[in-house]
Design goal:
Elements (H helix, E strand, L loop, with lengths): L3 E4 L4 E5 L5 E4 L4 E8 L2 E6 L2 E6 L24 H12 L17 E8 L5 E7 L9 H13 L4 E8 L12 H6 L4
Parallel strand pairs: 8-9
Antiparallel strand pairs: 1-4, 2-3, 2-6, 4-5, 5-6, 7-8
Amino acid sequence: MSEKTVTLTRDVNAAIVPVGTKVVLMQGEQAHITQSLGGAYTVVVNGNMFRIEGRDADALGLEAQTQTPPATTGPVTLEALEKQVWESLKSCYDPEIPVNIVDLGLIYDCHLTPLGKETYKAEVKMTLTAPGCGMGSVLAQDVQNKLISLEPIDEADVELVWDPPWHQGMMTEAAKLQLGLM
């Protein structure tokens, strides 16, 4: 989606970027959509940046987004599930940066533990581009929600860690290229 300005069609819950504080944007306000990635929208209203969940896209005059996890038939191998997990993580985006959190180098570890015959627990250690970013809990919840939406995942724990500190060298070459750092 290219950037565009819309009028909010209803009151909508949003999170202030980068602090993460929850607010309500009011019907009739002008919102400039700057990013539409990973099932969420980044908008600017009255000079401030906000994140709006895809399920609330109708407030932007758009069709609400639903995340449909890939259908599974029969038992899933651990290798196939790990691939699904990483693809799911690649659908999470920082609201200020148009690159997924995996390519940004924010995922330090992802481990799957069997809970039962065909169910698993996912444990993720991730960081943020800056320790003071208030969007950490929002991004961690996004990761958790996307992992739990995968059929074999019954539990998902996401831990924000700060060691080692994130730096641009942790980004993939594709991410650096996309952000003009190469």
